[in-house]
Design brief:
- A hairpin with a 4-residue loop joins strand 3 and strand 4.
- It is built from 28 helices and 5 strands.
- Among the domains are: 77 residues, Herpes Virus-1 (2-Layer Sandwich); 166 residues, Leucine-rich Repeat Variant, CATH 1.25.10; 119 residues, Leucine-rich Repeat Variant.
- The strands form 2 sheets. Strands 4-3-5 form a 3-stranded antiparallel β-sheet. The protein has a two-stranded antiparallel ribbon with strand order 1-2.
- With 542 residues, the protein is mostly helical.
């Protein structure tokens, strides 16, 4: 066996004669007769902070080795523990201690001990706080800072999370709002602002998923069974009750617990925030992927309710639930898929979540659900795609998925046109999206939609004109395609019958098109073709 550490004695000196009091890495081979007791691991293999075998040991700047999660907890709390030798570790930089990790795994194999698992962040935090409470900041301030911090995960880690989690499904909630009063529509996180966000006056869309209802009268069949929340769930530590119920083996108990959670969080904003703890989210995850329809559907619906609170949105993403929702969209119970689309839509309202959701692979399942899901699934998938494509990286991903043809085809579906055109507007503001849409004959499709002017609601009219306007900006191809489809006639109709905004955009496009045609006609008249043919004038001049 290899043991990587021993502690330098006070009398030991470094290479320059200076006393060094830190952990030094060295290797020794134990005798063949050494015994391995799985209940008594060598102290060198145990994290001094967490007190357990290290899953991912790292060497910090001052030379000691700790579990990586322990280092992260201390850094987040601004806390530096004092070691038994009186030293204070420096957590500025960390380097993976691969030799020690190999030693730990070897010891586990020889002793028959279970290999260490990655410790839960909040469990480590609780241990640190419990052991040194007087030296730590208040839990409330640290919790707030964690909730407000951005997601610190790489694309590789996020994509790995998608592959490791099984499929699941969900449903949504909705209350119509005037988007001019809704910051979620007007605060895109990307530097390139959406055409819709800047130019459309009325968005007849929701900031809550379609499956959500504050009234039990609109509940679906699987939604609510029990009339009262158990009294044990109404204490100050409600999550304890739910966590205990979720972990029971009886499927009936699990179903009643998620139904109770769904009812408790239906309209109570405070309950949504207080119940959305890391422990509860962790216990809820297995129920989201349950093979029992009642458990799965109500678990996802309860998650939708929790996601409606702004304070919970980043927390839910960080809990690793997004991959489960994505898998539900790919293959779950129909009602669960409705809830899954609604949950992703709700989570996508938070700017800090948009990039992470796209990286995790939600765009393709949402695009598929847009075509083949139920009405509620399609509506929420469209709105989720709209909010996600406020970020440039997600626009590029959607273009690479060949979404242009799909979205233009969906415009012909009368009940979906208003939502789909929002996504098209977002794609049209970037060069890659504009090129893909023009290749898919978007001008002809959009002009065809506008010919049925009186059949469109005002917001769809304006957004179709806005999409055309974005396509016309800086594009020579647009002029030729517009001429082929006789777009000038339709734009003139928009000028006469459209709203002030739609009319203004139509005028600008008409002026631009006529100026281009006039310039071409002037060039045609100025050329002395006879002189060119006789060789008296150089054609290259023209």
């Amino acid at each position: 066996m290899y043991s990587p550490f021993r502690k330098a004695n006070k009398g030991e000196t470094g290479g320059h004669g200076r006393s060094k009091s830190m952990w030094k890495i060295f290797i020794y081979r134990s005798s063949s007769s050494a015994k391995f007791d799985k209940n008594d691991p060598p102290k060198e293999l145990i994290c001094p902070i967490y007190g357990c075998l290290m899953f991912d040991p790292v060497v910090v700047s001052s030379g000691q080795t700790f579990e990586r999660t322990s280092v992260q907890v201390c850094k987040d709390l601004g806390f530096k523990p004092q070691l038994p030798n009186g030293l204070t570790p420096d957590f500025t930089n960390v380097i993976p201690n691969l030799a020690l990790r190999t030693t730990i795994l070897s010891w586990c194999e020889k002793s028959g001990a279970e290999k260490p698992q990655q410790p839960d962040y909040y469990a480590v935090e609780a241990i640190v706080r419990a052991s040194t409470a007087e030296n730590l900041p208040s839990s409330s301030s640290s919790s707030i800072s964690r909730e407000d911090s951005r997601i610190r995960v790489s694309e590789r880690e996020l994509l790995k999370g998608v592959a490791e989690n099984p499929p699941v499904l969900l449903s949504h909630a909705a209350t119509e709002l005037n988007p001019r009063n809704n910051h979620h529509f007007y605060s895109p996180s990307s530097s390139e602002e959406s055409v819709i966000a800047n130019n459309s006056p009325l968005l007849p869309f929701k900031t809550r998923p379609s499956c959500y209802s504050s009234s039990s009268s609109q509940s679906t069949s699987s939604e609510i069974i029990s009339d009262e929340v158990p009294s044990s769930a109404s204490t100050s530590s409600e999550d304890d009750y739910y966590v205990a119920q979720f972990k029971k083996l009886d499927v009936y108990d699990q179903e009643q617990a998620v139904i109770s959670l769904r009812k408790s969080t239906r309209t109570d904003e405070e309950a949504r925030v207080s119940l959305c703890t890391p422990r509860l989210l962790s216990a809820l995850k297995p129920l989201i992927v349950s093979r029992y329809a009642g458990v799965q559907t109500n678990a996802v619906a309860a998650l939708v309710n929790l996601s409606l609170a702004d304070a919970n949105k980043v927390k839910i993403i960080r809990a690793g639930i997004t991959p489960l929702l994505i898998d539900i969209l790919k293959g779950g119970f129909e009602e669960s898929q409705e809830h899954a689309a609604g949950a992703i839509f709700s989570l996508a309202l938070e700017d800090d979540n948009k990039t992470a959701i796209g990286v995790l692979g939600a765009l393709q399942p949402l695009l598929h659900a847009l075509r083949s899901g139920t009405e509620r699934t399609r509506h929420d998938s469209a709105l989720a795609l709209y909010h996600l494509t406020l970020v440039q990286s997600n626009r590029l991903k959607l273009v690479k998925l060949g979404a242009a043809n799909t979205l233009l085809g969906m415009l012909k579906t009368r009940d979906m046109a208003g939502r789909v055109v929002l996504v098209i507007c977002n794609l049209a503001v970037c060069q890659e999206g504009k090129a893909a849409l023009l290749d898919a004959n978007a001008v002809n499709v959009m002009v065809g939609i506008l010919r049925n002017w009186n059949e469109l609601d005002e917001s769809t009219q304006e957004n179709c004109v806005a999409a055309l306007y974005s396509l016309s900006q800086g594009s020579l191809r647009f002029k030729g395609m517009a001429k082929e489809t006789n777009a000038a006639e339709v734009l003139q109709m928009v000028v006469e019958q459209g709203s002030e905004r739609a009319s203004e955009k139509a005028k600008r496009m008409l002026i631009s098109m006529r100026r281009r045609m006039k310039d071409e006609d002037d060039d045609e008249e100025e050329i002395d073709w006879e002189g060119v043919l006789e060789g008296r004038v150089s054609q290259t001049r023209y």
